[in-house]
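Pasting two entries for a bug report.
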Amino acid sequence: MTQHSPSARRRGAIVAIPVLGALLLAGCSGSGGESGESGDSGSAEFSFTFATSNNLESPYETLANAYMEANPDVTITTNPTPNDKYGETIRTQFQAGNAADVVQTTPGSGDARGIIPLAEAGFLEPLGDTAASLVPAGSETIFEIDGDVYGQPMDFTIAGVVASMGTAAMNGLDEWPADEAALYDACSALAADGKSLLALAGAAGPNAGLTAQGIAATRVYGETPDWNEQRAAGDTTFAESEGWADTLQTVIDLNEGGCFQAGAEGAGFDAITNGLAQGLSVGSFIPSGSAVEIATAAPPEADFKVQPFPAADGGTPYIIASSNYTISINAASEKKDAAAEFVEWLATSEAQEIYYEASGLLPVSSYEELDLSDTIYSPVVDLLADGAYAPLPNNIWPNPSVYEALQVGVQGLLTGQKTIDQVLQDMDAAWGE
């Protein structure tokens, strides 16, 4: 099975995480300037860009504020940037020479904000031993180039369904569907009452793509954990994959079965936040930490849990789980010393506790050591313990175009403008063949 285990070099463990979790997705922008030192050495200024999907305070904003409070001589300019265009935005800023000193990125090559293509283009500064110590064992290729690490991991994220079991219970659903038949029965019952089992931001490419990847957990990776490696070796293609065809067919079936809210194909991220907070939808394919942000607007009885999407034909549950958010330093920054001290601080127990209290995402340094039985992760504890998970596929893919083809393809399936075969062929073409 494909799985990540923490490196033996990791820093101290976080001993507690919150019951609920946050972070719909995150992002921002800024620019470099004169060199600066950190709080203990004198005044300093630097900028910090990260992605955001709503108007709530981002965990990255919380971290910046905490750092400035502890270091009164430091000023951090934060620029939250909409998630749906975040990758393109920061790449444009890097190319124009006005990117932030510190930038939120993602591992690998499969996203426009991926650290590998950004580093290969010369935009990112190599990081030090602390960042290297946090890289999950076996994941070096999506964090490093020639031994240099270009992104410091921040989390261990579950990409399943974040579901309000309180909303489910109020609508006659006593437990999360364990198989496809129960799932479609629940969809029909909720749709008849003007509600939906799943909220989908169909107009937002990242959510369309994440939804497909969450479904692919059982359809592709549960059956063939090394599918990405086989694709890279040329031993298979998307067009030849029954698992990927079944994944996309499931998207169509969910849409036609009333599992998504009405108008899902044109909906933005607010459809997820509002739908889950107001009890109009039970769950959504969003990063596991998103529950904290949504819970701030939801009633106390919402009871969010991370649930696996039902496997096809009575198969074994399987989920997507990996480190999905990293922090990088702009290679062109004139404030690298101050930026590096901030990034170093982000790895401390103090900073990680602040981050995970704000985001709800599992700590990359110690998630295997935590007792998750009374947290939002309780439904997937056994899957994590058994290694029944694969890393986020697009982190492994060779370039952002493959994931973009999946995002656009899912949107096309929702509107009827694309067929399954067309989407799979587009993904193969984007791979470079």
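Entry 2 (this is the one that rendered wrong in the viewer):
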Amino acid sequence: MFSMKKTMVAVVFIASAVIISVANAKTIRIGNQGDALSMDPHSLNESNQLSVTGNIYEGLTARNKDLSLAPGLATAWKQTSPNVWRFELRKGVVFHDGTPFTADDVIFSFQRTASDGSDLRSYTNDLKEVRKINSHTIEIETQAPFPILPEVISLVYIMSKKWCEENQATKPVDRRKGVENAASFKANGTGSFRLRERQPSVKTTFTVNSNYWGKIEGNVTEVIYTPISNDATRVAALLSGEIDVMDPVPVQDVARVNASANARALQGPELRTIFLGMDQNAMSCSIPA
């Protein structure tokens, strides 16, 4: 995926990517095997979906380049009791439409994440209450002591309460059931990139947020994201210069990519854990008498 703010081109939640030298580039063309199905950050709990919307929206906590926890829309947090976390919110942040970011947006976004239609409700299951202390301080009370709360909520992206109310998008909708609302194809976050044009399954164009609160490394001002599902077509597009970055790199093509004059495969860890579970209902055995 493209940079959120830490690098000019970065990979988020994936194992490998390819990058061409972009030292003098301003537009980066990315080819991915899939598309984000919605621009709603609470609609789908899926890696590629969250990687894309994570450039537009932000959580209270974020990740450094080494995937360690970092401040996001919250500058500091601490436990004030075994079941209560207090978060100090970043001041001077505005949404892409110019609306100031406040505690009301945080409370609204957590309620929205926990509502029907949200695919990220599992991130809020352990929460009892999110309450406002003042315009830039909130407390999160959990059902029981929950020491990893700051880690878990990094993917609960914050939306503008005002924008959602004005656009009749106060609740997420299930895109997999064919339901959409304004947040499905429009976006208004605080992130380092803005959504300029959305053509589902064709291409999505992002532009840099000139009012971003943080430092944006690199010189990328525009990102064109194109889904290319076929591995061979995606590799050919990279090697021909049609795209600048591709993800993922088919394992069988890593050597070919590295042998080309202007591309190389990058590999690194991801946050996702994958495990295999046995279907015990389908298993049978006999025990000797």
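Dev reply: Rendering is fixed now. As a check, the viewer should reflect this: The helical segments are 47-53, 103-113, 149-152, 161-166, 182-185, 231-240, 254-259.
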